[in-house]
DNA sequence: AATAATACCAACCGCGGCGCG
DNA sequence: ACGCGCCGCGGTTGGTATTAT
């Protein structure tokens, strides 16, 4: 069955997004919500295909995206989940609040796949020596870039800057605020990781974990929200 | 200082799943 | 039951930053 291309490519812009485009997209979604990607660009006045808009939003502009280096705990979790799920990046990302499938996929391809291939998960001491070269990113967040560079037309060079600013998932923020004002994300993450550790297989009953994990997925509820 | 090689990551592409008429 | 269109996923590509020579 032949499929028509998702959108006509004629007159469509490609490549890096400009601050102006980012702003237009964010603004549109803020007002109208996400979805209807096909018609979104037209309505938002963007010369982009819907797919591109969706990707940009999901991987970059979403306010709940947590940017910055993947922590060791997150890394361990990714490795474990990958062992269970394979390249199901969206599922894996679903277990890592604030992380996108694209980000995890990239991280896996550039760091973890090499490391995991040959040996088992490294110890923390190994980790430092094994760790692939890290760029000395200067800590820009893209959202900062967006706000500070809103001189339109200028392309946002989103890459090559690892940022230190953390964007909170609203759910996390809510739970965190339930916990207490200054316990914030760190505590939340600890709690979250504890809950993962409770769920993750201790080698023997992987099946058990797998089924409870799948049930969890089926319920459509992130485990971290429960704890 | 210049150039090449490598690492990293945003964005693109094509396909499959699913819902709807 | 079938075809069509939209959405989402996973693999791949391309451009830039960083490091090595």
Automatic annotation (TrEMBL):
The keyword Nucleus applies. Residues 9-61, 62-116 form the HTH myb-type domain. Transmembrane segments: none annotated. It comes from the Eukaryota. Its main location: nucleus. Residues 114-129 have a biased composition (Polar residues). The keyword NAD does not apply. Residues 9-61, 62-112 form the Myb-like domain. Pfam families: Myb_DNA-binding. InterPro entries: Homeodomain-like_sf, Myb_dom, Myb_TF_plants, SANT/Myb. Keywords: DNA-binding, Nucleus, Repeat. It is found in: Nucleus. One of its GO terms (molecular function) is DNA binding. PANTHER family: TRANSCRIPTION FACTOR MYB8-RELATED-RELATED, TRANSCRIPTION REPRESSOR MYB6-LIKE. This is Uncharacterized protein.
């Amino acid at each position: 069955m032949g499929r028509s291309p998702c959108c006509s490519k004629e007159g469509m812009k490609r490549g890096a997004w400009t601050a102006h485009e980012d702003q237009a997209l964010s603004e549109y979604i803020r007002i109208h919500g996400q979805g209807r990607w096909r018609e979104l660009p037209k309505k938002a006045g963007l010369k982009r295909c819907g797919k591109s808009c969706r990707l940009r939003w999901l991987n970059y502009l979403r306010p709940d995206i947590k940017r910055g280096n993947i922590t060791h705990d997150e890394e361990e979790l990714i490795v474990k989940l990958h062992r269970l799920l394979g390249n199901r990046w969206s599922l894996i990302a679903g277990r890592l609040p604030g992380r996108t499938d694209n980000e995890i996929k990239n991280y896996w391809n550039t760091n973890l796949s090499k490391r995991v291939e040959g040996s088992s998960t490294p110890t923390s001491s190994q980790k430092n020596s094994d760790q692939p070269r890290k760029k000395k990113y200067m800590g820009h967040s893209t959202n900062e870039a967006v706000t500070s560079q809103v001189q339109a037309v200028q392309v946002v060079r989103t890459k090559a800057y690892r940022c230190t600013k953390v964007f909170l998932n609203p759910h996390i923020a809510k739970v965190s605020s339930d916990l207490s004002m200054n316990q914030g994300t760190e505590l939340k993450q600890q709690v979250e990781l504890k809950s993962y550790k409770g769920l993750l297989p201790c080698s023997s009953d992987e099946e058990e974990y797998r089924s409870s994990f799948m049930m969890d997925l089926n319920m459509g509820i992130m485990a971290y929200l429960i704890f």
